[in-house]
Structure formats: C-alpha cells, structure tokens
Design a protein that fits this description.
637 residues, alpha+beta, DNA Primase, Chain A, DNA primase DNAg catalytic core, N-terminal domain, Dna Topoisomerase Vi A Subunit, Chain: A, domain 2, 5-stranded mixed β-sheet, 4-stranded antiparallel β-sheet, 26 helices, 15 strands, DNA-directed RNA polymerase, DNA_primase_DnaG, zinc ion binding
Length: 637
C-alpha cells in the first residue's frame, strides 16, 4: 500500500515516541528530562541494569549505547512487537486518531482475505479445545497427564485435540458459515487429488496453536497419538497466514519474558517449550518442525543478542547444532551471537527437569558454550593430527569458516581464540621463561622442543645506526631474534601481528612463530636470515643467556619498525594533501614527515623540536614541488 507524501511525518509528529516505547520500558526519571522530551531507560532489546537506552521526543528517534539498536517509532514497533510495516502504521494511526488513506482495491482485498482466514483459525482453535473434553480424547488426556500437564497448563498453552475423523472439523466450520475454499486456504482442510470433498488435515492428534507476534492464531502443530503414524508431528501447510520458516512457537510470551530479564532459550519442540516455561524459563521458543532458518535466527536476535540453543544430547541434536554453525557464521557479530547447551544423552528438557529439577537446567544454561567452541569441536573431535598435512587441513577448514564472518573485529577475536585452542591441542610452544603451571610468562601453553625453530648460538646485536638499518633489515632481525628466543614471542605477540612482511618466506616464518608451527618456507627463510651478511657480520655481543638484553633489542627493533610505518603513513597523507590545493597545512605536514623520518633513523636521540639537519633538504624539496605545481591534477588521457 502506498502512502501519500507527508503522512508518516504527520503520524510521527502526533504521537511522541516516548508514549509508545514507555509501554515497554521503565523510564529512569533521575536521568531523564521530561520537560525536554529526553528519556532514558534500560534497553528493551538486551539485558542490562543501567539506563543506556535513549529516547528523544523532539527528534523522534531512539538509540541504545549498549547494543546500538536505533530507529524511529515505526522501527520500534517492528523490532519489539514483530509487526509488519503496515501493521505498525495502522497501530500508530489509531494512537494518533488518524485515518489511513484508502488502499487500492487489490490491497483491500488481500487484507480482507487475511482477516477472514484469521477468523477460520480462531474458530478452529475453539473447536479443538472443546474436543479435548470429549470421550474420544480420553487417551490424549491420559498422555498429557503422564507428561505432567494439569488443567491450568492446558488452558495456558491452549492445548486441544483433533479426533480421528476425516470431516469433523470441516463440517463444524461449514456450519459456522465459513466457505470450504476459506477452510482449505487457512490450512485446516485439504482437497484430494481426485477433486472430491475436502478432508481435515489434523486427525487423531494433540493440537498446539501457533500464534504470531501479534497474538493471532496463524497455524497449528499436531502430535499423533498413533505410534505408527507417518509423521509424529504435523504442522499447518504454508498459507497466506503461516510461514513456518519465519515464525517461532511461543514467540509473544517469550519476548515479554526476555524484556523482563530472562534469557532467550531455543528448544527443539512444543513439549520442550512447555516444560521449560512451566519450570520458570518463560523466554523459550522453538522452530516449527524444521531446522532453524535464517529468518528465524534474525527474529531471535531482534529479541535477544545472545540466544541459547538448547538441544537434545543425542546424535541428532549435535548434527542440528553443527548445521546451525554454518548458518550463523555469516551473520554473527557484535550483538548477534549464539550459545549452546547440549543436554545429557537421552534426555530432553522435560526429562531433565523431572529427574533433577529446574536447578539442573539452570546450571546447564549457566555453562552454555559459545559458537566458537562448537566450531572447534566439530573440526577436531575424533580426529588425529599426526602429520603436517592433517594440521594444514585443519587450519584450512578453520580459516574458511572464520572468513565467512562479516565483522572484522569479530573475525579477529575468532582468530585469536582458535590460535589459543590450537596451542592447547598440540602443546607445541617451546619451553623457556615459564611461569606457573609450565606455561610461558606470556600465558601461552608450552610446546615441545622438537617443534621449535630455535637454534643454538649467540643473538646478533643489530646496529642502531648505519646505512643498512632500513625496515627490511629491522624486520629480519626481529624475526631472527624471535626464532632464536621463542620464549619472548608471547610478550611481543600483539606487535608481531602488526608486521606485514612482503617477502613470502618471511611471512611464512612469521606465521610459524605466531602459531608455534614449522613449515618448509619458514625454515628456509630462517636459514636465509642467519646467512644474511648484514646480520652475520654484526658483532655477537649478546650471549644467549642474557634474556634482558635480548628483550631490549627486540623492543628497540619493533619500536623502529613502527616509527618507519608511521613515517610512511605521514608521507602518504602529505602527498594526498598536495594533490589538491596548497594550503597552510602543507609546510606543517612536511615538518611532521621529516620528524618521523628523524625518529626512525635516530631513535636514540631526543626530538629537540628543531629540524636543523633537515631544514635545507626540506626547503629544497618544497621549492621543487612548488615550482612544478604538483598540486595540480594531471589532465585525463
């Protein structure tokens, strides 16, 4: 439906955003300024105790400084209540006392048809609930009693029964005035291929109604009473109301519970949700008979930034978790994470709660594992890594998985955590400089000496001055010292990770040092460095046992490399500036470049703030650039 220009602006103006949001939050009146329409509250989209959610009536926007949720009043209705856009517009128009523009005839027809189908499903629910009280439902009532469901539970979850009769529901709905075509379109009945009379879809089943985020009955799920039934659980078919891949069972009550501080738990089925909700875990939902879909995952994240996936502790549950890893990785990032709970083998939530109580379930939830743990388990469990090829295959699989994460910061943390797990698995950090528990002082696990690239002999002393002390020499010296003294890697690791060797061999050596591995390319690069004339001819004044002096040399080398990088970056910015027009900052920029070069070449000298040794060169360089008018862009060819 198209809306006339200015209609939405008028709508937002008439209804202060705080009026709508205020129904979902408790305003912090000490922090808020009501007179100015400036409101603060704990965020309704994620669990927090402080008031980091800000709402501005004058601008008509909200923003959370914790989870970065933001938008206008229509966005809030869609995100918090799961409304479609036009449903949110209708809600807001009712608040404002405004009439919606007349829709086009086709849109009106679709809306009227959906309203009529909703009447069919509501009537079907009432009929199912009545059937649970009949004699035909005695076996179903016995089953529900054995599962611990009393009458208040049956009423709370609106559980019903479909008798084993091909036409009972269809006939009852026809008697209420619904047309057969409407009953079929709502998914309550189906027509046979031969064109005969419509028959009931749900027969001989316990019925669970499925409501959407607006509390409307959009479909049903049915559990068969016959153990030989072709499908134990049967859901409504796809209809104009029901899309099983975009909805969740128990969505509305779960969203309300999460808004009050409960975790969002994702169970496998209807009875799991009911058992957990009755045990106090009211923020529980379930997919509708299929594996979790991308749309369902996004819906979960709109409710909570970190849903807990609770799966049965059998092979099927583990397979479901592993499939979810591949679905979630391309979508994960800050505010969109998952944690996993695998129940004891052979138990579902209902079994666990009955046998060990709600406390046992809560303990499992408190120990929920992050997604990266399941990724690591999937790629390593039951495998042997007794050859370089198998280790390389593991690295390749993990790298490919992590590369699918779109957020750079999240990828970086995944890489760091995988590196830590790899060291723990292979136990291959070289001994030396150990702290408590046999770990190096940097906190990394120790590795055996067999995998070490260290060699005996003195550590070279790299000159602080001289014509050869360029970035390539400094980089080579730093890598050589780390190879000879690997116990120093942990302390320098963050700075080593910022190195970007252009030489492939050096890049391989750096990778080997950081992941505590040994490759052919890395070993060859190490031998090349040891044979380098500039390094080999330097007096070996630091003996291997002098750890303090070796660490000081490594620190000095890394300082000078960073100074060179800073100088290069400064020069690049200066050159970028003079591509436009010459301005007052040009001279200053060149002075900063000269100072950066001065610090890189003479790190042992204090920067006096004077550029005596560079002033003449700088003046000549500036004169050359100005004479050539290099700020003018070259003509296009």
């Amino acid at each position: 439906m198209s809306l006339p220009p200015g209609f939405l602006d008028e709508l937002r103006t008439r209804v202060p955003i705080s009026r709508v949001i205020g129904r979902k939050v408790v305003w912090d009146l000490r922090k808020s300024n009501q007179a100015r329409g400036d409101w603060w509250a704990p965020c309704p989209f994620h669990q927090e105790k402080s008031a980091s959610f800000h709402c501005d009536d004058q601008k008509g926007f909200y923003y959370c400084f914790g989870c970065q949720a933001k938008g206008d009043v229509l966005t809030f209705l869609r995100e918090s209540d799961g409304m479609e856009f036009m449903d949110a517009v209708r809600f807001l128009a009712a608040e404002a006392g405004m009439s919606l523009p007349e829709p086009d005839p086709r849109a009106r027809e679709r809306s009227d048809r959906r309203d009529q189908l909703l009447k069919v499903t509501e009537a079907a629910l009432r009929w199912f609930r009545l059937q649970l009280q009949t004699a035909a439902a005695a076996e179903a009532r016995d089953y529900l009693t054995r599962r611990g469901l009393d009458q208040p539970a049956l009423d709370r979850f609106e559980i019903g029964f479909a008798p084993d009769n091909r036409h009972a529901l269809t006939r009852a709905l026809r008697e209420k005035g619904f047309e057969e075509s409407q009953i079929v379109e709502a998914g309550m009945s189906a027509r046979p291929d031969d064109g005969g009379a419509a028959y009931d879809r749900f027969r001989g089943r316990i019925i669970f109604p499925i409501r959407d985020g607006r509390d409307r009955v959009i479909g049903f799920g049915g559990r068969a009473m016959d153990p030989n039934a072709r499908a134990k659980y049967l859901n409504s078919p796809e209809t104009p109301l029901f899309d099983k891949g975009r909805n969740l069972y128990h969505l509305g009550p779960a969203r309300a519970a999460v808004a009050k501080g409960q975790p969002l738990i994702v169970a496998e089925g209807y009875m799991d949700v009911i058992a957990l909700a009755r045990a106090g875990f009211e923020g529980t939902v379930a997919p509708l008979g299929t594996a979790i879909t991308e749309d369902q995952l996004r819906l979960m994240w709109r409710i909570s930034p970190e849903p807990v996936i609770a799966l049965d502790g059998d092979a099927a549950g583990l397979r479901a978790a592993q499939r979810l890893i591949d679905l979630a990785l391309p979508m994960t990032g800050p505010g969109q994470a998952l944690r996993f709970v695998l129940l004891p083998a052979g138990q579902d939530p209902d079994d666990l709660i009955k046998s060990a109580g709600a406390g046992a379930m809560r303990a499992l939830l408190d120990q929920a594992r992050p997604l990266i743990d399941l990724l690591w388990t999937r790629e390593t469990e039951g495998q042997r890594f007794d050859s370089p090829e198998r280790k390389a295959a593991l690295d390749r699989r993990l790298q490919e998985a992590i590369a699918r994460i779109p957020d750079e910061l999240t990828r970086r943390h995944y890489t760091e955590e995988i590196r830590r797990k790899r060291w723990e698995l292979f136990g291959n950090r070289p001994p030396g400089n150990r702290g408590q528990g046999g770990r190096p002082a940097g906190g990394r696990p120790a590795r055996s000496g067999k995998a070490s690239m260290a060699a005996t002999g003195p550590i070279p002393a790299i000159p602080l001055d001289g014509p050869n002390a360029g970035p390539a020499l400094l980089e080579g010296a730093a890598l050589l010292i780390c190879a000879l003294r690997p116990e120093m890697i942990a302390a320098a690791e963050p700075r080593l990770e910022r190195l970007s060797p252009r030489d492939p061999g050096r890049a391989a050596l750096l990778h080997d040092l950081l992941v505590a591995d040994s490759s052919d390319a890395g070993r060859q690069a190490l031998e090349t460095l040891r044979a380098d004339a500039h390094l080999g001819l330097t007096p070996a004044v630091i003996e291997q046992q002098d750890a303090e002096a070796a660490a000081a040399i490594l620190t000095n080398l890394l300082d000078r490399l960073e100074a060179h990088r800073a100088a290069s970056a400064e020069l690049a910015r200066a050159e970028a500036e003079i591509q436009g027009e010459v301005d007052e900052g040009l001279t200053w920029r060149m002075q900063q470049t000269a100072r950066a070069r001065h610090r890189a070449e003479r790190p042992d000298m204090e920067d006096s703030g004077d550029l005596n040794e560079d002033r003449d060169a700088l003046s000549a360089q500036l004169q050359t650039w100005l004479s050539g008018e290099i700020w003018r862009k070259p003509p296009r060819r």
